[in-house]
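yo

u said u wanted the structure for the complex thing, so here. seqs first:
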Amino acid sequence: AQKVTQAQTEISVVEKEDVTLDCVYETRDTTYYLFWYKQPPSGELVFLIRRNSFDEQNEISGRYSWNFQKSTSSFNFTITASQVVDSAVYFCALSEVGWSTGFQKLVFGTGTRLLVSP
Amino acid sequence: ETGVTQTPRHLVMGMTNKKSLKCEQHLGHNAMYWYKQSAKKPLELMFVYNFKEQTENNSVPSRFSPECPNSSHLFLHLHTLQPEDSALYLCASSQDFGDNTEAFFGQGTRLTVV
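structre next:
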């Protein structure tokens, strides 16, 4: 069965600090996708990144970076120079690749609440 | 604005009431989903519709009844709910052309059962 673990329930940092959100996953599939979503207080989940299991290249997008390590089944997310607007709940998710099914079954972690204070 | 709109945003209902949640997507996607987000629990996939056909029902109690009249609209009909059904109900949609794409979520309906 697939499982996503986000061991950090809540993290508090001061603005401009760097912060890393951990994500560990379990799957028997050899092909899968990993995702990060942000949930601000307004409620909707905002897509941040999707990573294919065959692509272990780290990715950087502005202040955001992701470290995918298949050997440790981890897909960690780092925010550099955090800002107050980064305060939200962040979810890591795993999806099997549905080549014939045409849809995603996202398995989510329990989320990490990030609080960035001025 | 993600292109997925949910109404109402907030709903309070008694255990004997019947109500419906509505989701509409303007993204031309072919798959739509209902997720339930309870406090301190992972988001749970409830139902999946692909090209208007229900393809997934994750052992959801029959007091939740989904309806997908077309690929742009998804409803969740509620009746005789329990207080433990209070949660944030999120709708999502995605497109697939032989490769997965990300799911886009609505802002959710915060449901309180009293």
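Chain A has a mean pLDDT of 90. Chain A touches chain B at residues 4, 33, 35, 37, 42-47, 50, 91, 95, 97-99, 101-111 (CB under 8 Å).
cya
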